[in-house]
Amino acid sequence: MGHLTTKDAYKSLEERINWFTQGAPPSETLYKILQVLYTEKEAKWVALLPVRPFTLKKAAKIWGTTEAKAEKLLDHLCEKALLVDSDYHGERQFVMPPPMAGFIEFALMRTRGDIDQKYLGELYYQYMNVEEDFVKDLFFATETRLGRVYVQEPVLTNDKTNHILDYERATHIVEEAKYIGLGLCYCRHKAYHAGHPCEIDAPWDVCLTFDNVARSLAEHGDYARLISKEEAKDVLERSYASNLVQIGENVREHPAFICNCCGCCCEALQAARRFSPMQPVATTNYIPKVSLETCIGCGKCAKVCPILAIFMEENVSTAGNGPAEGSPGSSKRKKHAVVDTEICLGCGVCARNCPTKAIELERRPVQIITPVNSTHRFVLQAIEKGTLQNLVFDNQAFANHRAMAAVFGTILKLPPLKQALASKQFKSVYLDRLLSMYNKYEKK
What we know:
It contains 21 helices and 13 strands. The protein is α+β, with helices and mostly antiparallel strands. The termini are far apart. Residues 318-322 and 395-399 have low confidence and may be disordered.
């Protein structure tokens, strides 16, 4: 690799990042970001690695070095949170995290002196809050969203609580996790360094990661601190109290993260404001309903809504039809709250802040479909983005049959239309026959 120039090294890394479904559109700002996060040598090393999990033996073979030297390099990259490691049936595996939620965020999940975090925060702000290509690609390039919103469980009434599914509960995710990590909120940390501090002064130490991601970030470089389930639930309570929105990985089983987000700093919530009515994350299965009988028109719900989905509307005369004069819902009240259901995320922050309990959450008439796990989400997004062949035919990543089987297994469970799109992208006789055999079997 010695013949590569500095520009070539980072260009190769950028191309490698964009080989995966979630990429990072090239720009001069991205190039500067990669220079802060990676040395030239690190960029060369990582550019050669698979985008899916790989072993020490595989890395050594790719780099043309001994396993001892390869392990030293891999450990170093884990210490910089540029790789994440895990134990798979007794064998250590590594994976290059995507940009988000991944190596971009990890760099600001703790204070550190090895890089200029103020300069990095300014670059992040430019790349994500001023330039729009990355945010549009991240949140709107596929129908299947990267993240999903969790409903605030404390605002659900008893009858609604009985109908909430386990995977819709942030507390259930906490209970199911083997490891839980707590780090700084990357968004508020970035905004602070960029000269745009959080408008509501929300807490920073509320970023939750789970399982292998949490363990790896905690063991290598202290990017997260391992905490108990009780501490994690306390993080949720503190976040509820600060009117933060819980956004996690858009999967039902074992999400890698749950962020506690404010409308002024979070890229997802900012995108919801800027590109309304398009929704950058999957909503909850709930929608708020305002009772005109008990709404007093105070406007608190509109003030706390993180994506400005509630507005106050002037009352129409209700003489002879409405509540008795002087009651909370009387026509003498000047305004009442109206929810824009087209853009509402269903988080429940409004209901929590209503002083008269005039807002209740109801199940949406059409339920939101959530991918089962990360592999399911990856495949769906790859099909929708037209990059499924990259996911499957990354030779280094899919050199073993287990990885191929995981992808094909997910494809086989997709609706026929999605299967047809996958087959078209592959242009594979093998896949066509596999799908044909599976569909014939299903019809019997």
